[in-house]
Amino acid sequence: LASGTVDNPEIVVTGMNEALRGRRKAEPPARWGEAVAALEKRDDPELDRLVNELSIVFGDGRAADEVRALVKDKHVDAEARRNAIEALVQSRDPEIARLLRTLVNDRDLATAAIRGLAAFDDPSIATLLVDRYPSMRQAAQIETVNTLASRPLSAAALIAAIESERIPAARVSAFQIRQLRNLGDAGIGEKLKSIWPDHPALTGQKGELFEKYRKLATPAKIAAADPAEGRVLFQSLCGSCHKMFGHGGAIGPELTGSDRRNVNYLLENIIDPSATLAENYRLSVATLKDGRVLSGVIAGEDGDEIRLQTIAEQMTVRRSDIEMLETSQLSLMPEGLLAALSEEQALNLFAFLMSAKSP
């Protein structure tokens, strides 16, 4: 790179970015300054962005200034601006938290900004997010609950907002309820039982729930349901982890070829997902030294670093930043996914899951 003779420097620089993703600091390779100078001559904005993100990890304050300017520039591609936010958050840029506060209602950057704010232990962030919640788009609202549920103090602010109906209880998903439980705070645990007294993950009444849905999901009712509407529900509830008909995430098992035409099989796996759990889908809970709690599955380890796949993203966490790491017998998939659905919605979801082809 330093010689300027590499035919495809974008491939090299992209590979370096991927290898260092999640690291706050790293030693620059030999002749990195010369490489930057050579790459700047190519006058390629995308290459410049990648180089600047690397330079932040290598401790270049000038690069951080340029990346902050990129985040603020509304003429730059939104995806490039979101990547820039991630790079600044990962490096714990001293000015990024203040910048992110100004972006929580930005049409293109709100979700990235709110996710980035989760990295900072500042009680005023919770106040800001709760206040701005009503004016946010749906994706930003979901990310707001994720961020608030990641620390005990901000979770208390979330619970208070739910109790006062500033944030609707119905907008908190089963994943997020489980994250709140994973904080290990007794007071929050009691509040959860009060807000969601019938939630199966909190009551343990799995048998009754199984019988309820087994009687509901008759062949005639499933045949009359709307699998297209079920596909929309699947994308919202399950698609971030499971793939069906070639679409969805790869955190959990592929569902297309499973025994999903059997309604009992579906109910067993939805209502009690931890009953037959493969080793690589066990839930890990990492309590960080800065007070944040992360829930996910361990996707890989490399020396002092752990790659943790959460519902929202894959994060690289240094072991030295972890106060405690626990792996449980629970599945990443939480209990209670059906709790927020009406009977009609549940039947639509079953109709999609049992379809021979995508509707």
Task: Tell me what you see in this structure.
- With 359 residues, the chain is of the alpha+beta class.
- The chain contains 18 helices and seven strands.
- It has helices spanning 9-20, 32-40, 45-57, 61-72, 78-90, 96-101, 110-117, 123-132, 138-148, 152-163, 174-182, 186-195, 200-203, 206-216, 219-224, 227-237, 263-271, 343-353, and strands at residues 243-244, 247-248, 282-288, 293-302, 305-309, 314-318, 322-331.
- Strands 6-5-4-3-7 form a five-stranded antiparallel beta sheet, with no helix packed on it. A two-stranded antiparallel sheet has the order 1-2.
- Strand 3 and strand 4 form a beta hairpin.
- Helix 3 packs across helix 4 and helix 14 (206-216) runs antiparallel to helix 17 (263-271).
Question: Can you tag this structure with a few keywords?
Answer:
single chain, 359 residues, alpha+beta, 5-stranded antiparallel sheet, two-stranded antiparallel ribbon, 18 helices, globular
Q: What is the gist of this entry?
A:
Helix content is 49%, strand content 11%.
Principal-axis shape: globular
- Beta content comes to 5-15%
CA-atom Rg in angstroms: 22 Å
- Spatial ordering of strands, largest sheet: 6-5-4-3-7
- How would you sum up the major sheet? 5 strands, antiparallel
- Ranges where pLDDT stays below 50 over 5 or more residues in a row are none
